[in-house]
From TrEMBL:
Swiss-Prot/TrEMBL cofactor(s): a divalent metal cation
Superkingdom of this protein's organism: Bacteria
InterPro entries, per the entry: Ap4A_hydrolase, Calcineurin-like_PHP_lpxH, Metallo-depent_PP-like, Pesterase_MJ0912, Phosphodiesterase_MJ0936/Vps29
Keyword Metal-binding appears in the UniProt entry: yes
UniProtKB keywords: Metal-binding
One Gene Ontology term, aspect cellular component: cytoplasm
PANTHER family recorded: BLL5683 PROTEIN, METALLOPHOSPHOESTERASE
Keyword DNA-binding included in the entry's annotation: no
Boundaries of every Calcineurin-like phosphoesterase domain copy: 2-180
Official protein name in the record: Phosphoesterase
Annotated GO MF terms: metal ion binding; phosphatase activity
Enzyme Commission number(s) from the entry: 3.1.4.-
Length: 196
């Protein structure tokens, strides 16, 4: 399965990731923040919908859908079909995929849910409480794969923007082999930066 998170409106990077994943991933997971703040992206949401992505809302979608996003939602530039898709998305998704019990959220899988959990966070030692084989999250823009007991925790990093000076302008995604549990991280130069 292919996993992306934190697209933040970067349609060029998202399109590239989808193109690369098309040949090797049988499912697409999107762990929130498809767009930034109140800058809705019809193109990204349409691509997620057409790819039948499993998708959860991030803090940016929640801001857009909240009281402060009323004017942005009413804009004639916002496709009603794409808005309905976002409005119907959950903040937490549980299902079985490839034989793995999946829990996907954007931020922390533990309350308070909006927290940023870095890869070394001691909170992950509580993974057994989550009743999941695979936990997918985003929010931090930090790629990570960590196994705690039988639970694999994956953050693909950001396909929209890098917040890590050491990575330069690299963005990326992850692939999880549901048979072996192997996690592969892929990265590429941010096409948004190249266009500037």
């Amino acid at each position: 399965m292919g996993i992306v998170a934190d697209v933040h409106g970067n349609a060029a990077a998202f399109d590239r990731a989808l193109g690369e994943l098309a040949a090797e991933a049988d499912a697409l997971l999107v762990a929130g923040d498809a767009f930034s703040d109140h800058r809705f992206s019809n193109d990204i949401v349409r691509a997620m919908r057409e790819a039948e992505a499993l998708y959860v809302l991030g803090n940016h979608e929640l801001s857009f859908l909240g009281p402060g996003g009323t004017r942005a939602r009413e804009s004639p530039r916002v496709s009603r079909a794409e808005l309905a898709y976002v409005e119907a998305a959950p903040t937490e998704l549980r299902c079985t995929i490839g034989g793995m019990r999946l829990l996907m959220v954007h931020g922390s899988p533990f309350p308070p849910y909006a927290r940023y959990l870095d890869p070394e966070s001691p909170e992950f030692e509580r993974a057994g409480e989550l009743d999941a084989d695979l936990v997918v999250l985003g929010h931090t823009h930090l790629p990570m794969a960590r196994r705690v007991g039988p639970t694999l925790i994956v953050n693909p990093g950001s396909v929209g923007m890098s917040d890590q000076p050491a990575r330069g302008d690299q963005v990326g995604y992850a692939i999880v082999d549901t048979d072996s549990g192997e996690v592969i991280f892929r990265s590429f130069d941010n096409p948004r930066r190249a266009a500037v």
